[in-house]
Amino acid sequence: xxxxxxxxxxxxxxxxxxxxxxxxxxxxxxxxxxxxxxxxxxxxxxxxxxxxxxxxxxxxxxxxxxxxxxxxxxxxxxxxxxxxxxxxxxxxxxxxxxxxxxxxxxxxxx
Length: 110
Known about the structure:
The protein is of the alpha/beta class. The chain has four helices and six strands, in the order βαβββαβαβα.
């Protein structure tokens, strides 16, 4: 099963690790854009983005999840499933419909 995982903070990392350790293919990760942190307020990637980078997984960091370019890329990835764990923004219906555009329930597909 092709999976696009959406999450941002450290509490989402164990869930991503579980999916990475499964038989499913994580084709991309969606996370919030890098944010200023520390005294120098330099941009820092989210814990989920860091784990994705360690595994060489494409990371999508849309400013707005409704962005047409983001939705187009998500569609191109053709995921079967998009688990969302502490992403940090409302996921629009257009993004939620990408893994299941025809409305059919696809449980147990490989």
